Amino acid sequence: MSLGGLFALLCIEIDGCSGDRRARYGALIAAAYGLGLFLAGVSWVYVSLSVFGGMPAAVAGLATVLFCLVLAVFPALAGALFVGFAVVGWWRRGLLFASLWMLAECLRAWAFTGFPWLAAGYSQTPPSPLAGYAALLGVHGVSFVSALLGTLIFEVGRRCLSTEPCSTRGWLHRFPALPLLAGAAILVTGDRLRDLRWTEVAGEPLSVALLQGNVAQEMKWRPERFFDSLRTYYRLAQEHPAQLTVLPETALPAFLDQVPAEYLDALQKLALRQHGDLLLGIAVADGKQYFNAAVSLGASGQQHYSKVHLVPFGEFVPPGFAWFMAMANIPMSNFTAGSPGQPPLRLAGQRVGVNICYEDVFGEEIIAALPAATLLINISNVAWFGDSLAPAQHLQIARMRALETGRMMLRATNTGMTAIVDVDGRVLSSLPPFTRGALVGEVRGHTGATPYVRWGHWPVIVCAVLLIALLGRRRAVLRKQVLVQRETK
Questions:
Q1: Most exposed residue of 270, 291, 307, 389, measured as fewest CB within 10 angstroms of its CB?
Q2: Which positions are annotated as active-site residues?
Q3: Cβ pair 378, 356 in contact under 8 A
Q4: Transmembrane residues, as ranges (predicted)?
Q5: 185 contacts: CB under 8 Å, gap ≥ 6
C-alpha cells in the first residue's frame, strides 16, 4: 500500500534528522506524495476546463497544477506533524500516522467548501475486507484503518529484512509476529463485519429504469439540439416502463418553465401507466435565482429537490474569481444553493433521498436524509470530464455511500457510470459508459440506521484527537525525563 511507503519514508526522516529540519522535510515528502496523488487522480479537472470549458490549454493546465498544489498542503501538514512529533515505538508511530492522515482528510473535506475526493477509504470498496468498517466508521474511519494497516505491512517487511542481531534489541523487536497478527486481526474483523446487516428490507420490490441519454457535452447546450434531447429521453422512458424512472442531472438543457407543457404531460402519462413516478434532472428558475434541481412527475404528485452543496467554479463563482470564469464557457455556472434539510421525496411507495452529482462525495450530508429515506438516488452529468478517471471514481464513491448508510444507491448519469449499487457496496448492474440506453432492474427500500448514520464521523475524529493528545503527552513526559537525567549527570 502506498501509504505504507509514505510512512516508511517519513520514519527514515525521523531517524535521520533532528530539529526544525525534520518537520520541514517531513512536510516536503508528504507534499510530494500528495501532489503525485492528486495530479494523477484529479487530472480530469484539466479536461473539464480545457476540452469542455473552452479555457486555453496553458491556463487550464496551470489552474490544474495550482489546484493540486493546494490539495497537497493537507498531506504536507500531516507529514510535518508526524515527523515533528517523532514518537518512539512502531505501534505508537502507526497510530499517530493513521490519526494525522485521517484528520488531514477530514480537514480537506471541510475547508473551502470541501474536496474529499480521493480519500484513502474509497480504495477499500468490496471485495476489500476493510469495506466492513464503513457502516461503523464512515469513509474517513476506513482511511484510518487503511493507513494503520499500511504501517503494519511496512513494519512486518522491516523486521523480516532486518540484519540486526536479535540480542541487540530483543527478540520482540525483531520477530514480525506482533505487527503481522495486528494486521491479520484488522483484516479478519473487517471481513466479518461485512457479513453484518444493519438495515432491514422495507416494502415490495420496485422496478426502476435509469436512463442514460449519452448526449455529448459539447452538443448538449446547442439550441438546435434541444428537441433531440427531449426525443431521446421520451423514447427511452417509453421503451422501458418501470414504477420509478430516473433521468440524469440537467437531462433537459433548459429551465423547467421553458419545456413545452405537453412534453411534461407526456412524461407524466408514461409514469402513470405504471402507477409510478418519474424523476427528472432540470434547472428550475425562481425569479432571478435558479437551482440545479430534480423534479418528480407521476402518481405521487410534483415534488422537487434543489441541490444544496454546489461545486465552486462549476455551479457558483467564488468571490473574486469572476475573471477566471470569464475564460471558461460553462453554462449555468451561478446556481443558488437549495435549503438544507429538505425532506426525502415520496416516490413509487419509497422515501427517496435525492442527491445531485458532487453531493454524494459528502457522506455526512447524505446521512442528513436518514434514517427517514429508504432509498438513495444520485443523478449526475459527468460528461464534463470526458473519458477520464472521474466517472469510475464517482461510482466508487457511490458504493461507499451505500456501505455507510445500508441503503441501495441508484445512479442515473448522462454518459456513465449509470449503476444499481446494493447495500453491501456491490454493483448489481451497470450500463457501459458512452452508450445510450436504460438500466432496468428491481430494487428494495431499507429501514434502520447504521452506526455511521447515527453518529457520523465524530466518533473517529474525537478518538484520533485523543490518541494524538495521549501520544503527545507521553512524548513530553519522556523528554522531561531525558532532560532530568542530563541535569543529574
A1: 389
A2: 249, 307, 357
A3: yes
A4: 26-47, 59-88, 94-118, 130-154, 455-472
A5: none
Nearest 10 degrees: CA dihedral of 48, 52, 53, 59? 70
Nearest Cα residue to 231 out of 273, 239, 269: 239
* CATH class for the region spanning 201-453: alpha beta
Q: What is this structure's pTM?
A: 0.90
Q: Where are the domains of the chain?
A: 2-196+458-488, 201-453
* Cα 381 from Cα 222, distance rounded (Å): 16
Residues 6+ apart with CB under 8 A from 482: none
Is residue 295 scored above 60 in pLDDT? yes
Distance CA 251, CA 144 (A): 38
Q: What is the C-alpha separation between 460 and 452, in angstroms, rounded?
A: 10
Q: Give Rg (Cα) of the chain.
A: 25
**DSSP state, 312?**
B
For 23, how many CA atoms within 13 A lie in the half-sphere containing its CB? 9
pLDDT (tens digit per residue) in 126-165: 999 999 999 999 999 999 999 999 999 998 888 777 655 5
* Separation in Å, CA 16 to CA 11, 23, 26, 86: 8, 12, 11, 11
- pLDDT tens, 168-210? 444 445 567 788 999 999 999 999 999 999 999 998 999 999 9
What does the pLDDT look like over 373-397, one tens digit per residue? 999 999 999 887 888 899 999 999 9
DSSP code at position 50: I
